[in-house]
Every structure is written in structure tokens, then in C-alpha cells.
Write a structure and sequence with these properties.
five-stranded mixed β-barrel; elongated; disordered N terminus
């Protein structure tokens, strides 16, 4: 972690306090807090919604309303989302069975969990959604052998019927079957049959991806675990015995869950690798393939997994790299039982530090945040903004708001990783961005202001603190505010400044009303750029194109774009030299790169005269940071400003 002196920090903070976007976030937060009921009547309040949640909702609305937002639009969207979120946790008229179980319900929701109320309200269910359900009733449709489960959940007043998949009939067919009233289950991979497609109410079609929950404190469940799952261990598995028809019932703790994409015979294949550790400390891999990978949505690290009749596969025969000679798979006869890990609540002290804004309004000294079995604390719902100086090891769910001061692609043949340095008023830190295949965040460059959520703090190989981010990780998002059209189209999110007032030290996009002055200095050219990242490409000696940012061959993904350098002027008689590319250059030049390229050379040379004194509102960022220069400019280029967005004034 890299910081500055106390004086430098104070100076940077004074500048950032002027950030109009952050100022609106604090205003919106105070408005949401006013919606909360002061049930105690003594001025004490709960933590309320997380700072990250507010920023994410504002930015999501900005993306949806690219032509601009107003305070009324933003506050309306925020309040509706906040009231809806609070309604999920509000008391509802629930079935008696659920009310009885609710007393001992202390689990944290899984990331993809949806409620039955939301399914009934939206009449929609995605395949990767998770239902954390309680069986209200189990029955057979009259005149058939079709088994049905009526399901409820802890957050809904509605119930829904599920057609049980035949692989679970043996668990529901007997009078004392385990799939009975009061049993909790997790399920995913469900298709919804809506009311218009059959009966008068929606039903869930059969799914193979159902896990039965057990409670070690309940006698019946403890007896099941002891009788069925304690005689076998990973060390007792024999491939010879498996080949002769032997099967195993295993019980182990989920150590880790990792996703990967491998090259199969018919193209890319998704894989989830779950590391299990049994009671003897022996580790074994449990692999899910293709469509099975959604089953991992039902698992969480620290939970105990009981596997009845898992398929045992040879690592050698299947050409899979594992530490052992075999691994486990979810076979056609496999049944899964889960003892969920119950997260502990850890008290995290919140104190007013030099990096916390007084406007955040501390009303309490502690907030309760979940902590897992490894001591990692989840800050997803932390009510205040996190600063670099506040970060410590074993913090997850972190969100950072800051400016990009460096970004490079790492040499990593196993995965696509970019190392981004982000700075806020308190210091700088390296963020390792992990992607499933390719960079997918659009154009990001030096000086751009970004909001990143879903970060985890870890020590680097050099024992320095860094944060990691995974593209498909829980709660992961990355938004480049500097390139948002709504930023300059919304007066509540920016402050209009004359060119004479803009500062190299400001860490957010500065918005100015300007006109183009091509007579002073003007350069335009069309070049090829990489469509995935927006950066220029170079033609290599071998004749192929390589992206200057991603450092990969990208012949099939190149597009023609502008490289524009031009002088900007305004009413303060200040002139600055700035550059831009992509859509921003098209908005300034009011012509596409293809159309400009097709113009005769004489017309290209004369084209700037048609732009003279055209007025625009532009967003400007300092593209030279700490001696670093964006790869789109030469190191000795005198330009320090990039135009990230622009629109023509009527």
C-alpha cells in the first residue's frame, strides 16, 4: 500500500470533497436514512443500506438513463429499491412450519437466492437462481406416480409446487422418506411453468440440482450422518473396488470453490472444482462439468457436504490434472446432503478518521458484519465508504472509488490478469483484475475515475497488501465513471468549471463548456483499435495486429477509430491541448471514422475549419499520472488532458 504525507492526504481530501458525484451520494444516503423508522425513539439507528449499495444503484440508473438523470429520478429509483429490499426482510404471514423453523434460522443467504414472492410477482425464474426452501407438503398427484413438493421460504408469504425429479423419488416414496414436511432444501436449475401454461398457479419443473439440508443438532439427522457417512473416508477409496461395483458415502468440509474454463473436444467447457477435506485432513477434488456447474451455487466454503454414491473417476484415464489418482463427480446415482456453515457476526469498530467525511454522519460506534470460519470479514453492507488506508488482510466485499494511476497486463499463461493501481485521498493500492477469458470492461485508461466492488484484500508475493477482483465473483462490478454519458448529461452529478479552474490534482472528471480551436493546434488520424478494450493496435512484423493494451493478437476484433488532438478554448480565454478517441472523437468531429477515411485528402485537411467555434460540454481527465503516460500517447507527448465524453451544445 502506497500513501503520502499527512499534509498531502489532507490536500487531496480537500480536492475530493468537491467531487459532485460523492456529494450527491452523501445526499442520497441521508435521504434514505430518513426513510428508516426510529423505533427506539432515542435517535439510535441501524447501519442502514451500505455505501457501496447506494453507489451501485446510482450508477446502474445512470447506465439505464444515458441521456441524463435528475435528483428526482435517482432518489425515486433509490427509495423504491431500498423499500423493496427492506420489504424482503419484513415480517410476513408465513406457514406454521416455517414459523417454527425460523426461530433457529441463522444462515446468511446464498448470493443467487431469490424468494418465492419475487418469482410469483415477476413470473420469471433464471436457471442459476437459488431457492432456499422449506417443504410444506409432500404428496403424489392422484392417479399418477408423480411426486410433488409444496415449498415455502423464510421471506415469502407465497408457496409454490415443485415436480420432483425422479432421481429423488427413493427419498420421498417411503412414509418416512427424508423429503417430508419441515425439511429444508436448496435447489437451482429450475424452469418455471407459468400459470398461463397449465394450472391456475405457477409451478417449478423437475431439476436434478437439489441438495438436502441436515442439522447436526437434530437427533434424526445426527443418526443419519453417523450411520451412513462416517464409515468411509477418502483414504478408504479404492479404484479396484470401484471397478468391481463398490460405492461410498463420504462426509467432508468444503475447503474452496473454484471455476475454470477448459478446452473440451467440442469447444470450451465450464468446470467447477470443489476441494473437500475429510475428518482425517485428506483433500479430494469434487468436479462439476457443463450444466452441472450451477450446483456449486448451493455450496459455501466451510459447509459440510455429505455425498452418497459419488462417481469416482480416474485422473489418469480422464487426463485431469489433480493431486491424487482419482476425483469425485456428480453421477446419476449421487445424492447430496449439506450441513450449512453458519457465519459468525463480528463487531467491527467504526471511528471517525481523517479519511471519513463528517457528512457521513456517524450515529453509532459499531456495526455487525459477518465473518467466516477463516476470519475473513464481509464488508458488502458496510455503511460507509472504504478508503485505501483502512484496508487490512482478510477483508472481502470491499468497494473502492478512486482514480486509475497505472494499469498493465500481467504475464500469466493460466488466466487473464490485469494489475491496476487505484488511488484515493488516503493512498494507492494494486488491484489484480481476473477475467474468465478476455478483458471485458471497455476502455479504461490513466486518470479515469472508477468504482470497483467485490474486492478481497490479500497479501502479495512480496508481502504487500493488494486487492483481488474476479469478473464472475460475488458482488463484482467495475464501472468507469469518466466515460459514462450520464455524467456530463446530469447537472446533479458534475460541476461546470471554466478551463482556468481545472486542476491536474483533481481526481475526478472535470466538466467544462468549450469550443474547438483547430487553428491553434489540430491533428486527426484514423487508426485501428481493439474493439474489446478501445485501445490502439500495432501491426507486427508478422503482418498481424496486436493490441497495445491487452497484448494479444486481435485481427478479428479491430475497428477503425479516430486519434484526435485539438485545442479547446472557453470564455475565460484559457486554451488547453487535449486528445480523445472512439465515440468521444466521433461526437466532436460529427462524422464516423469510416466516412472521414473515405474523404479525399484535401477535404480531410479542410475539415477542421467546419468545426471552428462549435461549442461542446466535455469531461476532462488528467491522463499523465506520477510519470506514467497512457499507451495511446508517446512518452514525450506534451498533452496532459483526455476528453472522455462530449456532447454538442444546441
Amino acid at each position: 500500500m502506497e500513501g503520502g504525507s499527512a499534509i498531502d492526504v489532507d490536500n487531496r481530501q480537500e480536492k475530493e470533497e468537491e467531487d459532485p458525484f460523492l456529494r450527491f451520494v452523501e445526499y442520497a444516503r441521508s435521504e434514505l436514512l430518513s426513510l428508516e423508522d426510529d423505533s427506539n425513539g432515542d435517535g439510535s439507528r441501524t447501519a442502514g443500506c451500505g455505501w457501496s449499495w447506494i453507489v451501485s444503484r446510482i450508477l446502474k440508473t445512470c447506465i439505464a438513463y444515458s441521456s441524463g438523470v435528475t435528483p428526482a429520478i435517482l432518489l425515486s429509483e433509490l427509495s423504491q429499491a431500498w423499500i423493496g429490499q427492506r420489504r424482503v426482510g419484513a415480517p410476513k404471514k408465513r406457514h406454521e412450519v416455517i414459523n417454527h423453523l425460523k426461530k433457529n434460522h441463522r444462515r446468511t443467504k446464498l448470493p443467487n437466492t431469490v424468494t418465492i414472492d419475487s418469482i410469483c410477482e415477476k413470473n420469471f425464474l433464471s436457471l442459476n437462481s437459488v431457492l432456499e426452501a422449506v417443504i410444506i407438503d409432500a404428496f403424489v398427484l392422484p392417479g399418477t406416480n408423480i411426486h410433488m413438493l409444496t415449498l415455502g421460504d423464510y421471506w415469502s408469504s407465497n408457496i409454490i409446487d415443485l415436480y420432483l425429479h425422479r432421481r429423488f423419488y427413493d427419498l420421498a416414496g417411503l412414509q418416512n422418506g427424508i423429503l417430508k414436511k419441515g425439511r429444508e432444501v436448496f435447489l437451482t436449475g429450475c424452469y418455471l411453468r407459468t400459470a398461463t401454461e397449465g394450472s391456475g398457479h405457477p409451478r417449478l419443473l423437475p431439476t436434478e440440482y437439489l441438495v438436502i439440508l441436515l442439522d447436526e443438532d437434530q437427533d434424526d439427522d445426527a443418526m443419519l450422518l453417523g450411520a451412513q457417512f462416517c464409515s468411509d473416508s477418502f483414504s478408504s477409496i479404492s479404484l479396484d473396488a470401484v471397478n468391481k461395483g463398490a460405492s461410498y458415502s463420504l462426509y467432508a468440509r468444503i475447503e474452496s470453490i473454484e471455476s475454470a474454463e477448459i478446452q473440451g473436444s467440442f469447444g470450451p467447457l465450464q468446470r467447477q472444482q470443489i476441494t473437500l477435506v475429510d475428518g482425517d485432513g485428506v483433500a479430494l477434488k469434487f468436479l462439476l462439468w457443463g450444466e452441472q456447474t450451477i450446483l456449486a451455487n448451493l455450496f459455501s466454503v466451510g459447509s459440510m457436504l455429505a455425498l452418497d454414491k459419488p462417481y469416482v473417476a480416474s485422473s489418469v484415464e480422464c487426463d485431469i490434472e489433480t493431486t491424487g489418482e482419482f476425483y469425485l463427480e456428480y453421477g446419476s446415482a449421487t445424492q447430496l446432503y449439506l450441513v450449512p456453515y453458519i457465519q459468525h457476526e463480528e463487531q467491527v469498530c467504526v471511528t471517525l478518521t481523517p479519511n471519513s467525511h463528517p457528512s457521513q454522519g456517524l450515529r453509532f460506534s459499531q456495526v455487525s458484519l459477518p465473518c467466516d470460519s477463516q476470519g475473513t470479514i464481509d464488508f458488502s453492507n458496510y455503511p460507509f465508504r472504504s478508503f485505501v488506508v483502512d484496508l487490512r488482510n482478510k477483508m472481502t466485499g470491499i468497494s473502492l472509488y478512486g482514480v486509475v494511476t497505472d494499469i498493465i497486463k500481467e504475464d500469466n499463461i493460466q488466466e487473464t490478469v490485469f494489475s491496476l493501481r487505484i488511488a484515493d485521498t488516503s493512498g494507492e493500492i494494486r488491484a489484480k483484475l481476473h477475467f474468465g477469458t478476455f478483458w471485458s470492461l471497455g476502455r479504461v485508461s490513466l486518470g479515469h475515475t472508477v468504482f470497483i466492488s467485490g474486492l478481497t484484500c490479500t497479501p502479495s508475493k512480496q508481502k504487500r497488501l493488494e486487492v483481488s477482483w474476479f469478473e464472475n465473483g460475488s458482488g463484482a462490478s467495475f464501472i468507469n465513471l469518466s466515460c459514462l454519458p450520464a455524467l456530463i448529461n446530469s447537472s446533479c452529478l458534475h460541476k461546470l468549471s471554466p478551463l482556468s479552474d481545472i486542476s491536474y490534482q483533481t481526481s475526478y472528471a472535470q466538466v467544462c463548456r468549450v469550443w474547438l480551436d483547430p487553428i491553434k493546434y489540430y491533428y486527426v488520424n484514423t487508426r485501428f483499435s481493439h474493439s474489446l478494450c478501445g485501445h490502439f493496435v500495432n501491426k507486427m512484423p508478422g503482418g498481424f495486429f496486436e493490441c497495445s493494451f491487452c497484448h494479444i493478437s486481435c485481427d478479428a476484433e479491430i475497428v477503425r477509430t479516430f486519434h484526435l488532438k485539438i485545442t479547446l478554448s472557453d470564455d475565460s480565454s484559457t486554451k488547453i491541448l487535449a486528445w480523445c478517441t472512439g465515440q468521444t472523437a466521433m461526437d466532436l468531429l460529427q462524422i464516423s471514422p469510416e466516412e472521414f477515411y473515405d474523404l479525399p485528402e484535401e477535404e480531410q485537411l479542410m475539415y477542421p475549419s467546419s468545426l471552428e467555434n462549435e461549442r461542446f460540454v466535455v469531461a476532462l481527465v488528467n491522463c499523465k499520472r506520477d510519470g506514467c503516460v497512457t499507451d495511446d500517447l508517446l512518452p514525450d507527448d506534451s498533452i496532459s488532458w483526455e476528453i472522455t465524453r462530449a456532447y454538442k451544445c444546441e
